[in-house]
User: Which sequence fits this backbone?
């Protein structure tokens, strides 16, 4: 094996510098840097001529190329004449190739540094702009929905059916699991507290009201945000990347009616059904825990639940879930349609869809709770 | 419908992304029945040019006329009507991935015609046969090769018998024989249907085989430097950049 790359300097006269390269000149840590030559040349400002002597060179790769390109650039800047002897023909050819097309100056990304305040301001403006985007999207979705009511919307019934299946029936297992467990957890937590007052039977009230009025809708909402909202964003985002959305537009088909409407409709229809199912599952979960307690029977639990949960609770729960369905579908579709044209943009769209949906669900819950509180129902 | 005269006229067009001007002062005319080539090096804005012609991106400045109608000043409905008379083949085919080829080609027909399902099926089979994809009706886009996807994209673009067809890099990524077959297809369609063809490409072989009119976008000057029959341009041009492009950089 040859010795590693080595750099030697000779200064035969005041204005000439000889740079002697020898050994194995391959990319790696032990390769001399062109900065050494720079230093040397700067240290002798009289130098107007640099000669590279590569006769002792054993082996080379890109390491030599970047070294030489750097020196070449430096010489061009300082208007120093550069000559070489003994450079392999391949190196000369490659260097020529690399300098054949001049660097495109204005194509470089502007690397201007922005001050913290400017950045903060830009972010804030962007944040408020995103609200107008949201409003615009909601507006367009509403127009598409009105068109649907008048029977004028263009979409494929098959798509609606497939989406209903994907966000309805196929979501049942996960909704079952989550709501059953949430019912159980509520029952456990409640039972421990209520035991202190000897009022274990009120576990039924706690689980029933909490699930039916609120938790079932929220839990299905969050599950669907992760499961279906993310999927919507990824689907529509990929369609943007593949120009499928453009293809719809140039055919005069509105992506809003064709893609967003069926998804929104499917979720708004399926979410209340899923929430209803989650109600039953949650109450069942509570019942399992209650039945394991010594002095509660299933019949008692059943009677207590039907006594505690009113039609208002059910109505509010189902209404919330329909709202959540629209929120999940809207945020999924909006992020998907806003998606850029790259794989990472699709990932961002899916993430952002889930985040937007969950924030939307929590905010909507707060608003609904506030209103029902004011109305006293 | 007249068979002569200008079909699309571009006047003083400027393309820009934000403050970054890609091309400025573009003026050219696409006549009816032309095979019009939009050519230029990579990154010169050929595809952007097409997105403006088909109504996907508003130009920063200037006008595009379809016959006498100022395209970008019309209201969205009018624009839709104009663009519905055009078919577009996108670079990667852009077939709707959740639908079979038959559904892809059939969707425009279902949407804009009163044809019965049976008739639609027949039209679809015809269009797919024209691009050499007979028998692939029930395949999904992901199940066929890239070249086949492009051809299926053409079949879909042709579904409504458009007056004008746009092709974005039709031969990119195809083997030479398939590329040649695609060129022949474009020529045959033009001859038999009289369709105006606008082709965005930088494949020299295609440019000289099919083009009878063109515009050259020069990325270094950020504007067009020539328009006309590419064969004539090659014979007559004195512009070194265009000569370099049309001769594949070979030294003459």
Assistant:
């Amino acid at each position: 094996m040859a010795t590693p790359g080595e750099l030697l300097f000779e200064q035969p006269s005041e204005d000439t510098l000889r740079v002697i390269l020898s050994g194995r000149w391959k990319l790696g840590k032990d390769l001399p840097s062109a900065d050494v030559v720079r230093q040397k040349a700067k240290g002798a400002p009289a130098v107007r001529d640099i000669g590279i002597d590569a006769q002792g060179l054993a082996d080379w790769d890109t390491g030599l190329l970047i070294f030489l390109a750097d020196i070449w650039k430096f010489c061009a800047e300082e208007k120093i004449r550069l000559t070489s002897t003994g450079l392999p023909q391949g190196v000369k050819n490659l260097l020529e190739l690399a300098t054949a097309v001049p660097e495109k100056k204005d194509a470089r990304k502007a690397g201007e540094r922005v001050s913290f305040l400017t950045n903060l301001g830009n972010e804030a403006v962007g944040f408020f702009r995103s609200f107008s985007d949201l409003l615009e999207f909601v507006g367009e979705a509403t127009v598409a929905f009105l068109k649907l009511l008048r029977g004028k919307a263009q979409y494929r019934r098959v798509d609606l059916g497939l989406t209903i299946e994907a966000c309805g029936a196929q979501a049942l297992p996960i909704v079952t699991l989550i709501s059953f467990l949430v019912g159980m957890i509520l029952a456990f937590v409640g039972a421990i507290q209520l035991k202190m007052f000897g009022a274990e039977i009120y576990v039924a009230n706690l689980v029933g009201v909490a699930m039916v009025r609120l938790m079932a809708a929220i839990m299905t909402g969050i599950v669907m945000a992760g499961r279906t909202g993310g999927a919507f964003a990824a689907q529509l985002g990929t369609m943007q990347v593949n120009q499928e959305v453009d293809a719809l537009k140039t055919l005069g088909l509105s992506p809003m009616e064709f893609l967003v409407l069926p998804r929104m409709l499917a979720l708004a229809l399926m979410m209340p059904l899923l929430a209803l199912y989650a109600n039953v599952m949650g109450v069942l979960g509570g019942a399992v825990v209650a039945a394991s307690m010594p002095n509660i029977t299933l019949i008692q639990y059943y009677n207590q639940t039907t006594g505690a949960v009113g039609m208002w609770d059910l109505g509010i729960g189902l209404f919330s879930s329909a709202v959540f369905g629209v929120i999940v579908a809207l945020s999924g579709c909006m992020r998907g349609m806003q998606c850029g044209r790259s794989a990472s943009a699709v990932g961002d769209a899916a993430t952002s869809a889930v985040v937007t949906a969950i924030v939307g669900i929590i905010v909507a819950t707060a608003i609904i709770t506030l209103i029902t509180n004011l109305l006293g129902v | 419908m007249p068979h002569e005269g200008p079909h699309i006229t571009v006047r003083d067009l400027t393309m820009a992304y934000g403050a970054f001007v890609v091309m400025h002062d573009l003026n050219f005319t696409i006549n009816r029945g032309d095979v019009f080539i939009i050519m230029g090096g990579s990154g010169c804005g050929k595809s952007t040019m097409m997105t403006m012609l088909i109504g996907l991106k508003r130009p920063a400045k200037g006008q595009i006329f379809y016959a006498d109608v100022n395209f970008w000043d019309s209201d969205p409905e009018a624009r839709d009507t104009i663009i519905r008379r055009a078919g577009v083949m996108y670079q990667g085919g852009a077939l709707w991935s959740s639908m079979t080829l038959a559904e892809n080609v059939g969707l425009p027909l279902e949407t804009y015609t009163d044809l019965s399902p049976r008739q639609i099926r027949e039209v679809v089979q015809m269009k797919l046969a024209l691009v050499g994809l007979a028998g692939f009706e029930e395949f999904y886009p992901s199940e066929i090769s890239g070249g086949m996807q492009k051809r299926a994209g053409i079949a879909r673009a042709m579904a409504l018998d458009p007056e004008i067809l746009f092709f974005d890099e039709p031969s990119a990524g195809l083997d030479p024989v398939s590329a040649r077959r695609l060129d022949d297809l474009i020529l045959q369609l033009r001859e038999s249907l009289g369709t105006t063809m606008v082709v965005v490409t930088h494949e020299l072989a295609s440019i000289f085989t099919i083009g009878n009119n063109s515009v050259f976008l020069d990325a270094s000057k950020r504007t067009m430097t020539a328009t006309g029959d590419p064969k004539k341009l090659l014979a007559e041009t004195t512009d070194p950049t265009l000569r370099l492009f049309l001769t594949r950089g070979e030294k003459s």
Observations:
- The longest strand of chain A covers residues 49-60.
- Chain A touches chain B at residues 154, 156, 159, 162, 238-239, 242-244, 246-253 (CB under 8 Å).
- Chain A has a mean pLDDT of 89.
